[in-house]
Every structure is written in structure tokens, then in C-alpha cells.
């Protein structure tokens, strides 16, 4: 934290969502993953269900301050594509996910200050 305030930090959470067009489709994907790894018991992810339900869950976490950024991990082959195609448009409609970016850097887009370079003259 040297030289930084608490506002200079963001909370990044990493999850493995399983998203379907419907709850039943998400459940089918979950069961398929279970069948591919019979010796390994997969826990149902926190962000799980229909696109609308997952968008609601992401929004709840975001608005509660539990995360500033969501890092998506995937075990299901089309999981990232499902999240991008089904959930992201809902989050964009709600103003939670950007449609355009103001800066060309991650720091700038997150609204974080640029630290002074102690090596510059």
C-alpha cells in the first residue's frame, strides 16, 4: 500500500459461471461436466443458471461492493462464449458492463490514478 489510498485498489473476484438460456440448460451443462469427471465431485458455481439469473447475481455482488471486476474462468468448453453472448448484453443494458471505453489502459478504464514514476527526472 506504499503511497496509495484504499481508493487506489480494486476488488477482483474470479468465478467459473455456468450459464444457459434457461435454468434447465445450465443444469444440463453442469450434469455433462459431472459425467466427464466421475471421480471428481464438482461444486455448483456461485454464478449459475439462466443468463438473467447470472446477470442478477453479478449485479448484486457489484452493487454490494463485493467486486469491482469479474475474472471469468471456464471448465465448460463453451462457457466463456455463453457468458459473453448471454450475460454481457444484459449487464450492458443495465449499465454495469461497458460498451465503450474512455481510456486505452486498464488503469484508466478503472479510474485508478497513475502513480508518479520515481525514476523520471
TrEMBL record:
This protein's record includes keyword ATP-binding: no
Name the record gives this protein: Alkanesulfonate monooxygenase
UniProt xrefs under SUPFAM superfamilies: Bacterial luciferase-like (SSF51679)
InterPro entries per record: Diverse_substr_monoxygenases (IPR051260), Luciferase-like_sf (IPR036661)
Keyword Translocase found: no
Sorted UniProt keywords: Flavoprotein, FMN, Monooxygenase, Oxidoreductase
Organism: Paenibacillus illinoisensis
Superkingdom in the source lineage: Bacteria
Amino acid at each position: 500500500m506504499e503511497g496509495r489510498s484504499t481508493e487506489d485498489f480494486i476488488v477482483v473476484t474470479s468465478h467459473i459461471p455456468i450459464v444457459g438460456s434457461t435454468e434447465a440448460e445450465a443444469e444440463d451443462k453442469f450434469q455433462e461436466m459431472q459425467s466427464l469427471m466421475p471421480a471428481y465431485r464438482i461444486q455448483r458455481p456461485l454464478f449459475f443458471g439462466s443468463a438473467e439469473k447470472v446477470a442478477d447475481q453479478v449485479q448484486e455482488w457489484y452493487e454490494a461492493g463485493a467486486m469491482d471486476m469479474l475474472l471469468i474462468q471456464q471448465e465448460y468448453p463453451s462457457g466463456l462464449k455463453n457468458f459473453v453472448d448471454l450475460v454481457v448484453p444484459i449487464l450492458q443494458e443495465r449499465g454495469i458492463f461497458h460498451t465503450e471505453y474512455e481510456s486505452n489502459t486498464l488503469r484508466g478504464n478503472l479510474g485508478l490514478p497513475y502513480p508518479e514514476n520515481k525514476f523520471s527526472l
